[in-house]
Every structure is written in structure tokens, then in C-alpha cells.
Amino acid sequence: MIKTASYSIQMAYDITDIEKKDAKNSVIYFNFFIQEMKIAEDYLDQGYTSFKDFGKTTDSDDAYKNRVFLRNYRDEVKEKFKKIKTDALKAQRSLSQFILDGEIKKLDESFVTAVEELDKQIDNFIEIFNSLQSKDFFQILVASCEAIKKECAQLKDLVDERIVPHINKNILSFNWIDDEKKKNNLQDEHKVPHIIELSEKNNKQSKNK
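Above: the chain sequence. Below: its structure as C-alpha cells.
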């Protein structure tokens, strides 16, 4: 326990260049995961938006009549979320060498749990299409879409508000100055103030006389 705590405290100071590179890659993996999850959620929304209104006015057999369209939609949603599960695994594995950091371990466990919960909701979503002749099909489908969207929102918050900031601050040692530079696209400036340049130039000229 003491060893783990000590490791956590000193991580920002003892990280090698190779580990920093791996940490940067980890941030890239997590950001890419979030981007791909948004693509999958956007596709889910195409049906969700229509089904919310459609379900209020349809007959009980409308879902069955449109079964080809609905099953294609189901399959496409399934494939898109299957892909982000692979992206999630890559992101999670990128944290493995930092697992001795107590906070990283907690974040890792939270991420794995959140992905598993999303996966369960996708399974529930797929299962619904076995009941196309149910009079409540569209209402149940809308509720399932909302459950998926909720899990996506929680995953996004976990990555954007906790995982990536922790990597940046405690492994890569980024601070508020780095954040402002990034937001405003500012470059590091190491130029010596002009008055000091003149002073140093005069000193050199005096020594050479």
C-alpha cells in the first residue's frame, strides 16, 4: 500500500520519455474512442428521433411491415457499437503500465464497468427486434435507445472529465498554462526580452575591446 501511494505521488516526476510517449498515445486512444462512440450514437439517433414520434401514431403491425428496414437499422447499430468496443479495449490496454497508480487503477475499473454496461444495453436493444409484432415495440425501442444514450453520456464524462485530465496532469504534467496554450493555439516562446539582448550584446562588445 505504501509503495503504491509513493508511486502515485512521484509519477509526475519519474516518468521516462518512453512512458510519456505511451501516455500521449493513451490520450489519443481515448479521444479516438469518444469520436467513434459519437459516430455510433449519431447513427442510433437517426432512428431514435423518428421512432419517438412514429411510435405515437403507428398501428400494432407497422413494425412488422417495416421489418426489413428495422432489422437493417439494428444490424448497423450493432456493427458500429461493436467497433467502438474494440476501440475501448485499445484505450484500456494503453493504461496498463500505469496501473500501479492508485487513481489510474480506479479509473481503469470504472471505464471497464462503463463499457460493460453499454454493451449490456446494446444486447437489450438487439433483443427487442425479436418482438416486432408487439404493440409496444416502438415505445420499448425508444426507451432502449435512451438507455444507450445515457451510457454513452456517462462514458464521455468519465473519459473527458476524469481519465484524460488525470493522464495530462499526473503523468504528462500538463497544467493550466498548457491548457490555455492549446485552447488559443499559442506556441511556446523562449525569446529573450529585447532589452536583455541589447545588454548582453553590449557586454560582449565591451569584453572584445
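Confidence is low (pLDDT under 50) at residues 1-13, 188-196.
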